[in-house]
Specification:
Blueprint: E1 2-8, E2 11-16, H1 18-31, H2 35-58, H3 64-70
Antiparallel strand pairs: 1-2
């Protein structure tokens, strides 16, 4: 589990369990990146994925079959 606590303006403390630390370490070695850089890449990727999910959820639902009867 990863938890984040704000410690000041634009400053955060990240607490990770052993399994998450190991997973970031494994990814960082596979990509040849420093551990911190890999953590940032994972956070950025998560933000992109969640942003796409929110965008998809905000799109109005359109049922083409229902439009055939009205249009």
């Amino acid at each position: 589990m990863i938890t984040v606590k704000q410690t000041g303006d634009n400053k955060y403390e990240i607490v990770m369990d052993e399994a998450d630390v190991a997973a970031i370490g494994k990814l960082s070695r596979a990509y040849g990146l420093h551990w911190t850089a890999m953590l940032i890449c994972c956070v950025n990727k998560g933000i992109v994925v969640i942003g796409k999910q929110v965008e998809a959820a905000d799109k109005p639902k359109h049922d083409d079959d229902a439009c055939d009867d009205i249009c």
